[in-house]
Amino acid sequence: MKLNLVLIIVLMFVKLSAQTFNVWSDLRSSAVTQDSTIHVRCETIVGDLQNTELHYSTEDGWETSIMQSLGMTSLESVIPYYGDEFVSMRLRTEIDFGFLSLILMMPSFLRDTDFPSDISQMALVGDDEAGDCIIDAANLDIIHEYFSFSDDKFISGIKTQNGTYPYYENLWGPYYFYMTILANPESALNDSVAYAMLYANVPPLFTPGLYRVVGLNLTEYSRIGDIEHQIIDGTLVLSCDISDLANDEYFGNWPNVSNTLASASITSQFELPMEFTLADSGHAAVQQFDYCYINALANTLPEISDVSVNQTSEISIVNVDYFDADGNFPLTAEAVVNGNNYIELSAMSNNFNETVSFTGLIEEEWENILIRFSDNNVDFTEHLIEQTLAEDNDNDEFITLSVYPNPIKIGSLLDDGMKFAIDLEKKSQVKIDIFNLKGQVVNSISRSSLNSGSHTLKWSGKDKNGKAVSSGIYLSRISSSGISKTVKIMILK
To answer: How far apart are CA 472 and CA 461, in angstroms?
Structure first.
């Protein structure tokens, strides 16, 4: 198989990967718990990714745990804590397309910038079957691939079956090429440009370096920078300066919007005058430059602020802001009602590097609410709210409100609307407020005068600015003649 065909396949996967950018978001962790474990969670935009691996650092390298679904888009793994000061975490999964597979992964971040890198600290891209090399040459048969990065370098590792990397069979050829292909998905889609960290020596044509390949044809190449290279325990480690790529006019912006890079390792045979033949290819991978680490020996107690309770005649909405200086998410986030009813509080976002708002619904009368947060289930931050009782309403009038369909899908809501069925005891003015869980009024429906009896009002699913609302939980409250009723609304995707 010709090498330019392999490059076509690699860039085809780059285009495919454009649909899978940032499949994970909000990788986060708890503090270390009393039983010496750490809870790690993330969100995924493509549902429950089967066999998503969580890799976490130890003194001896990386260990692996499989993420479990928490329902909806959340994944979690509980990992042991071995006493290291810093614990790094990253994700990896493999999607099988039948004839080829795509690796989605977070490469390891190397704080130690000295070259060569410690192989045990590099991220394994994948294992390749021994003996599948097209050319009968053990030095070209890839069996392991690695990828990592530092503040200023991309680092790859290629291990072949016999762990040797000669430049040539003899001075007249054939010559052997070992390379890691790199591509910026956001520019390669338009320019068909790839880059290669190349380990080869065919002077004056090729020497070890960083090359730009244009038009998927290795006869159209330019050397744009140097690489570092060294063989460590049978693995060829290659490193290039990120600045050499970022400064090249064809590479595109870096960091790019998706914060991703496509990579693949390839070996090939070269014969004069200009004949390239594929020997072996590793995995096509999308590197997502995101990771999570915690200082496990230090933990700051979370802070809570802006605690409020918005009350109606039937429902109370609790709102509270949470901040953790270490970026840890809470294992406990609850409102304890009257000392015995535990209500889970829901986070409005999962970026715990900044303040996150939590909210919860209380559908009962209460005298006190205890707000409790903990990032390790040992140390708690608490806030007590006590009810101020009001006089009873002696108004004997009645009003009923029902909402249908409820729950409702967002598409049906925007197409057909949501209906509010009202029964009034006497002629009166009516107002229906729809508000979100922060207590903000989304829209209102008013009638200056409705006769006694049954009526139906309709909401289009839009806010007061005419914009469609998003899915989630809302509250509808009808007010008339000094009395009110509240019904919870659920809008599905």
So the answer is: 12
Cis peptide preceding 405, ω within 30 of 0: yes
The beta-carbon contacts of 312-316 under 8 Å, at least 24 apart in sequence, are: 312/475, 312/477, 312/484, 312/486, 313/483, 313/484, 313/485, 313/486, 314/363, 314/485, 314/486, 315/361, 315/362, 315/363, 315/475, 315/486, 315/488, 316/361, 316/362, 316/366, 316/369
How many domains is the chain built from? 3
Q: Which residue has the tokens 């599905």?
A: 492
How far apart are the C-alpha atoms of 322 and 92, rounded to whole Å? 30
Supply the pLDDT for residue 3. Answer: 45
DSSP assignment letter at 187: H
Could you tell me which residues come within 8 angstroms of residue 465 by beta carbon, excluding any fewer than 6 positions away?
none
Please give the model's pTM, rounded to 2 decimal places.
0.73
Same domain, 250 and 365: no
Query: H/E/C letters for each residue in 239-250?
Result: EEEHHHHHCCCC
Residue bearing tokens 């990579």: 263
Residue 392 lies inside a defined structural domain of this protein: no
Could you give the strand order of the β-sheet that contains 303-311, starting from the edge strand earlier in sequence? 303-311, 316-323, 356-362, 346-347
With H, G, I as helix, E, B as strand and everything else as coil, classify residue 174: coil
Residue 428's CB is within 10 A of a number of other CB atoms, namely: 19
Residues 153 and 124 in one domain: yes
Q: Which of 353, 386, 419 marks a domain boundary?
A: 386
CA 272 to chain centre: 47
Single out the residue of 346, 345, 381, 385 nearest to residue 366, CA to CA.
Answer: 385
pLDDT of residue 225: 97
Mean pLDDT of the chain: 84
Cβ–Cβ contacts within 10 Å for residue 372, how many? 18
Tell me which residues of the chain have a pLDDT lower than 50: 1-6, 18-20, 48, 389-396
- In this structure, the answer to whether residues 305 and 358 fall within a common structural domain is yes
Backbone angles phi, psi at 197, to 5 degrees: -85, 105
pLDDT at 313: 66
